[in-house]
Each structure stands twice: as C-alpha cells, then as structure tokens.
Amino acid sequence: MTAVPKPLKFLRPHYPDLTALYDKWPVGELQNALADVLSVLGMTYADNNKRDSLRYRLLAPSDEIGNWGHEYVRHLALEIGEEHNVRVEKEESFDELMGLALQIVPFFLKHNAEADAVDLLLELEAIEKLPPFVDKDTYARVCLYMVSCVNLLPPPDDMAFLRTAYEIYLSQGKLTQAMALAIRLDDHESMRAVFSATDDVLVHKQLAFILARQQIWLSLENEEVQECLSNSRLSEYFLFLAKELNIMDPKVPEDIYKSHLEHTRGGPDAGQVDSAKQNLASSFVNSFVNAGFGKDKLMIVDDEASSWVYKNKDAGMLSATAGIAQILLWNVEQGLQDLDKYMYSSEEYIKAGSLLGIGIVNASVHDESDPALALLSEYVENRSVPLRISAIIGLGLSYAGSQRQDVFNLLQPLIADTSFSMQIASLAALSLGLVFVGSCNADITEVILQTLMERDETQLSDKWGRFMSLGLGLLYMGKQDAADVIIETLKAIEHPIGRNTNVLVDICSYAGTGNVLKIQNLLHLCSERAESEPPKEGENASSQKTDDLYQGYAVLGLAIIAMGEDIGSEMVLRQFGHLMHYGEGSIRRAVPLAMGLISASNPQMKVFDTLSRYSHDSDLDVAVNAIFSMGLVGAGTNNARLAQLLRQLASYYSKEANSLFMVRIAQGLVHLGKGTMTLSPFHTERQILSSVSLAGMLAVLVSLIDASSFVLDTAHYLLYFLTPSIHPRFLITLDTDLKPIQVNVRVGQAVDTVGQAGKPKTITGWVTHSTPVLLGHGERAELEDDEYVALTSTLEGLVILKKNENKVEEE
C-alpha cells in the first residue's frame, strides 16, 4: 500500500458512503473521476464476489490505466477473469471486458509481466489477439512461456497456443523456431509458409535439416535444399563424426559381451546353450554396434562363403542378412551394392533378408530414384511368405512418414482381401500405419475397419492381429480428438480385438500430450480384474492372452501419453510400481516395457535399478521384457553401470536360451552405434516428438507384450522396426558450403529459463569441446564466442554457421 496516495488511505472507512454518493451525483466528468477513485479503493475493500474495482473501472473508461500502479492493474486482471467466467455461464456479452483486457495486455508486456498478459488472454479465450502487441523486445519471453505451457493445457487451448506462438515467431523473422512449432502443429501449409518467408537459400537448407530430422517429406523447388531435406548426406556426416572421435574400427560382439568378465557357473563347457540362437543374437549385436559405420568383421567380408550369414538357421538367416543393411544404415548406394549379391541367393530366407535390408538401408533417407519401391514392389505379390513379409516391412521402413500414395496402392489390396493370412494383412496394415503416421488417412482407416468387421473369429484371434490394430492407431498419432469417430465405430466389433484396437487408437492419438484425463482412464482400465474363467474346451490359453491385451496396451499408453513432460513422467513411474505389485499377467509384462519407453536413451539410475530388479522376476516373460528395457533405457549411451548389470545377467541366465538371447540384444542396444546414437523420440531440445520414431518403437513393444510368440520365436526380424527410431545424437557445425567446420562450443545440462528475469544462463556445468560433439540426454550446446552466428536457435544435429559480420573486435 506504500504507493497509494495518503488521502486515499483515509477514505477507506468512508467507502460505503462514497459508493452511495456516486449514484446521487449528476452524470459528467466529476462522476467519472469519482468512479476512478472508487475503483482503486475497491481493491482494498474487496468484498467477496462484488468486483467493485472492475465495476467502477468500466463506468469510468480511461486510457491511462497504468497510472494507479502495477498492483492495481493485476487486481483488475484478476477480476476480469472472474467476471468473464460468470458472464459465460449466464451467456451474456463480455465485449467491454475484452476492450479493457486489450488495454491491460500492452501494459503488462511493457513491464516484464509477459506471463500475466498471456494468462489474462487465456482466461478470456482470446489468445489469438496477442501477436499485434508483441514486439522484438518481448517476443522471446512471451513465446518461451507459451510453448512451455502447452503440455499443461487441455485441448483445444494447447493448439491455439502453438498456433499463436508460431505466428509471433514468423512475424519476428525467427524462422527456425517457427518451423519447430509448425512441425508440432503437423501442418504442411505452415511449414511451406516458413520457407516462403525468406529467400535466403542457407536458411532454407537449415530449415530442411530440421524437417529431415522429423522425417517429413515435402517437395521443394531448389535441388540443393531438397537434398538437405532428403537426408542423403547423413551417412557422410556421421562417418565424419566417427573419424573425429576415432571410433571407426569395427567391433565384434565379443568386445561388447566381455565374456571373460562373466562368472559362468559350472565347468568350462557349462555355458554352451543353443548355438543357433546365440549366433542369431550375435548377428543383432554386431549390426546394432556397427550401425551406420559401414564396416564390420562378421558380415561384410570379401570371401562371401565365410560370411556370418551362413552361421544362422532358417529365419535367423533373414535377420542376419538384414543386419548387413543396419551396418550400412543411411548409405543407400553402398547398401544396395552389398545386398545385391544376396538378392540372387538360392536360400529363400537370405533373399528375404536382403529385401528387408533394402527397406532398412533406405530408412530416414529418400532417394530421387526410389530404389526401395522399384525393388520391393514386385515381391509384394510373391507366393513365398518370407519374401512377401520382408517386402511389406521393407516398404514400411523405407517410406516411414512419407504418406506416399503409391505405397498405399501396393499394400491396400493385401488388407482388403480376406483370403490373405492375418500375418500378411496385419503387417501390411502396420507398414501403412508407419508410412501414413499421424495423417488420419480416411481410405486406410476404412479398409482396416472393414476387414476387422468382415474377418471371422479365428482370424481375428490370430496373434498377428495386434499389428492390424496398431496400424490403425498409428494413423491417428498425436491427433487427439480426431480419432473419436473411429473409437465409436470400434465399439461395434464384438470380438476382443475391438476393445484392444480401441485402446491402441486412443493412446496413439494422445501421444506425448500429457493429458491427465486420459491417464486416469487408462489407470481405471488397468484396475479392472479379468473374470478368471478356466479356458473352455477347445480354447487354448493363448486366445485368453488376447482378451486381456488391452490392459497391456493401457500400461504402454501411460508411458506414451506422459512422456511429453517431466512431472507426468515422474508420477507415472510411481504408478508403475503399484501396477507391478497388484496387476495381472499382461499388465506385469507391459510395465517394464513402458518404463523403457518413457526413458528411452536416458539411463536414469532409479529406472534401470528398478528394471534390474524386475529382470530376476520369477515370471520369465516379465524378466525378458525388463532385460530388453534395460537395453532401451541405455540405448546408444555406452552406460558402464548398465553394461555391468547386463554382464551379470548374462552369467545368471547362462543356461536359459531365451533370456540370454534378450540379454545380448540389450547389450547390443546399449552400445548402439558404438555409443553415438539415440532412440529417444524427442529432439530439438526435447520439444518435438517424432511420430515416426515413436511408431517404430511401438511396433517392437507391442510384439514384446507377448515376446515368446514373436521375437523369441521366429519373428525376431520385428526388432528392425527400431530402425526408423535410430538417430545420431551429434552436433556437427557446417560452413556455408555444408562442409563440416570445427568451432568451440560449450556443452552442459540445459536449464529451464521460463519466466526468469534478465538474461539467465541457459546451461550449467558446461565443458568446452570443439565440434563435432555428442549430446547426451538433457544437454544443450551454445557457441563459445561470437565469431560465427548459427542459423538455428537450438544447436543440435546439423547446424549451419555464418561468419558474424558485426563481430566486436577485442582490443
């Protein structure tokens, strides 16, 4: 109250008399002046629900609203919010409130109260009126606050905030930030608008790099920019990083296993388990560890006869041959050349592996000549099941996120025709889900719903049916209420697959939104107890497994929805503990997978310690999934603590073929790309969720809810669905000719600076490195000096630098 003039303090006891006096005074300037004074007095004499300050302010309009000080304006803003809610309930007009609010907003923005301005317009549901008031001094803080609010807002406010922040960035010429928000809005028109906002080709290239990381396919006029967007030089940049970090030497699985450190029980020969399974595990480990490096010691050898591929059996050959492509990841030309000789193999499985390999090597990279489509399309109709399946999955991996109509034309008949086996139809649906992820494509939706309604009981109970459901879910990834119609339609399907699909579509459509109501619904689903009737005669236990699948999906859904923001993730991790204690079988099998997903490539101690406990669970299915999740949590981090835990598990399970196989896979994942890659679906400072990455991981996790029927059986090639999720976690700085240059950058833990005054530091505990550098989870980089200017606000991935024209020369 110190700012209130003395006479006003003495007027407080007379406030009721003054209000009575106001009504008796003649209309005119004097009455307005009295209303002005009463409005300020009303602030100290706040009688509940009277809102006198606002009432008298509306009776005495004034342009100089800030003259009575900041506290008064904040009080007015509070009362405007309350009054607005009352009027909305009574369905009265609130135009005069809006007029007053639009006077208050510029005052707030001028006085560093950006958050108050945004909150006021949010209360009045008029956030789209903000951009005209924002200028070059205030836009950064306003947008930072708005973007950080998005996860906490219910729809449709969250999208309105993104859209408004996008318009502000665009009007201020901050194109890379605008592009990041256009990607979050998933609006191709807005993305094109960002490109057309400037003629600078270098900026276009930087924008193209951002889009390429999200795997969005746009056609642009400029060929050089199109090349950046197609990721065609990703392999070259990755190998540059490998040379600089001196990790080009190929590794063999034994370098990862370090068997001499394992304490095997029994004599020297006691550890010999099913060698075909172990060779297969080594094939996967070899391809994960050397992924993207283009050379290894097992597969890509001069003497083809001694190739590791032939040390596998049947379906194992398929996965081993596809592993060659994983090693040559992103390098399309070399990859196709090396796979070519296997295309003519007399072994059906090797040929199938090379087809899957074509899909893998083209993942995240698109080539003008469309090699994947040309080579794989002829095998989609092939008689041989392995060849056909590999071609279908290959198409899904290589065109993930592209929304290509020709892929739809190829695969659609396989779903529509009920004479095809459920395996082929479901994998075709899954591949189409990957290609059209988040597109809400009506044609595919219709085909999948049609086939779910037409197929008979036995076909729908097939274990492969879950991928049909997932394919449908992926189409609505992150689209929130756009999926409501589909969810209603699915209720008409009486078979349990209807309910399973329902849950999958629901969780995909709210992926990464942190929507609290959805999380409550899912927890409610998990708490239902399945009526435990003994299986009827002629029914086996596996068909009962499909009945409670929806609970497993609900658990995964908790992770998928909460992974967008940290507080939600913390709370969900606590819930997982309860579910593990009290849940049914399918819930317990899914909990470790959900924990792996929520902290993928982010080895937090508390997460992997819990998983390490679960990996000794008496239910082997739970243990196997916990082991896989340990790999997922540490994917591409080389985390020493995790590597040690996995070595202990290898000796613990040395007699148990399936568990040991999974331990090996996890070891391969922890050392993914020799520790240079990540599986985390978030990028650009954890702002953007890559739907393609999440879709690939979901395909693997959905198969692992029943690991013994898929990955531990003959369908281990499903693990290659991780390929679209694999990205290098580098920062490479490029000059204006897109050649790598070395500059000094500081790398440290990112600090949240929302709403802080002044210019706070954005990173803490930093270390100076020269680029290229690897960025861990939650790390941020910034340039050390002002010799160069980065064309993007977030230093991550490929960043183009320009010489700073206005550099201040030091004395």
Automatic annotation (TrEMBL):
GO terms for molecular function: enzyme regulator activity; protein-macromolecule adaptor activity. Pfam families: PC_rep (PF01851), RPN1_C (PF18051), RPN1_RPN2_N (PF17781). Keywords: Proteasome, Repeat. It comes from the Eukaryota. Residues 1-262 form the RPN1 N-terminal domain. Acts as a regulatory subunit of the 26 proteasome which is involved in the ATP-dependent degradation of ubiquitinated proteins. This is 26S proteasome regulatory subunit RPN1. The lineage of its organism: Eukaryota, Fungi, Dikarya, Ascomycota, Saccharomycotina.
